[in-house]
Amino acid sequence: MANEMAGIPVVVTGLGEVGGAVARAVLSSAELRLVGAVDPSLAGQTLDSVVGTPTGIVIEADPARALKAARGGVLLLCGTSRFLEALPALEQAVRAGLSVVSTCEELAYPWLAHEEEADRLDALCERNDVAVVAAGVSPGLALDRLPALLSQGTGEVRRIEARRVVDVSARGELAWRGCGAGLDPAEFQRAAEAEAIGQRGLAESATLAALGCGFDLDELEEEAEPVLSSRELTGVLRIPRGGISGIRQVARGWQDGREVIRLEVVTAVGATDPRDEVAIEADPPLRLVVPGGFPAVASAAWSAVHAALAVTQLQGLVTVLDLPPGRS
Fold first, then answer.
1. What is the C-alpha separation between 30 and 290, in angstroms, rounded?
2. Cis peptide leading into 9, omega within 30 of 0?
């Protein structure tokens, strides 16, 4: 393969839907070299069965050997949304001399909810001369990095509004249940309060978008409500007309008593008009619509891979706002 003898050494951890896509993207890059794959649930199998192409790589349960082989390179960490769950793996990689790119949503801006742990990780990165960053679609691109980039073409930003609408009809049971489809109202309320359904990281996206557009939020709040189906839906589950087919999440932020940002994510079976949309109130005003939206899995994988090409030039715990705006 083109990347067997050169390129930044890379290890991929967590070989679920996104991790498998990340591994395939790494294998197609001439600038990255895949030297290891880690997933305890698949240990002993070859990576070939995940990526669909010969690799000669055996999936391991313990990352220690792979991290040693990739010293000076990058760990691509997939499979968890929660910062505290990812933290031990992040610290292990940093101590082994690797930078990290992760799809962990809460890692997008971990100071928001875990300031002490984030500062400690930042200091560890500085001591080991490496960097850690979260990259993906949401957070990482559609609702935060994209508004920040668009604001480069305007004067002072007065307000940001961004929306992501995702139809999970064609995806599997995990995606259907992950958006609350098929739950009754009481079950939905309990699941939403426990953050067991919906997208994680929306508050982190709002914080990043605000920072990237020149705001410093004083207050931030989130809310969630069910999406009700306008027709009977069948597939993984049967959802009657009027039944819960998904979730609508909203994050709103204020500065000096004025709402300056509103982000909305709709994730549902049969969601109408899937898209990513950003509107910036400024002079001149800007509005951008991506019809169909960024494909969740593929775009997350490529966002992580492109970040891997840049992260070795950085130091500390950083955000996507610190990455170059184009491909490195």
1. 29
2. no
Q: Which two tokens stand for residue 178?
A: 């992950």
Q: How much is the pLDDT for 1?
A: 39
| DSSP type of residue 250 | E
The CA distance from 248 to 198, in Å, is: 8
Tokens 């939403």 belong to which residue?
192
Domains 8-135+298-322 and 145-293 share a fold: no
Q: How far is CA 134 from CA 22, 233, 293, in A?
A: 14, 35, 20
CATH of domain 145-293: 3.30.360
pLDDT per residue over 3-45, tens digit each?
445 799 999 999 999 999 999 999 999 999 999 999 999 999 9
pLDDT at 279: 98
Residue 91 pLDDT: 98
Q: Is the dihedral of CA 307, 313, 317, 323 positive or negative?
A: negative
Q: What is the CATH number of domain 8-135+298-322?
A: 3.40.50.720
Backbone angles phi, psi at 284, to 5 degrees: -80, 160
pLDDT at 73: 97
Four-CA torsion 201, 249, 174, 241, nearest 10 degrees: 180
Which region among 11-20, 69-78, 229-238, 315-324 has the lowest average model confidence (pLDDT)?
A: 229-238
Query: Which of 276, 320, 302 has its CA nearest to residue 110?
Result: 320
CA angle at residue 170 from 168 to 171, to 5 degrees? 65
Structural contact between residues 125 and 100, judged by C-beta atoms closer than 8 angstroms: no
In the chain, what are the domain boundaries?
8-135+298-322, 145-293
Q: What is the pLDDT of residue 328?
A: 62
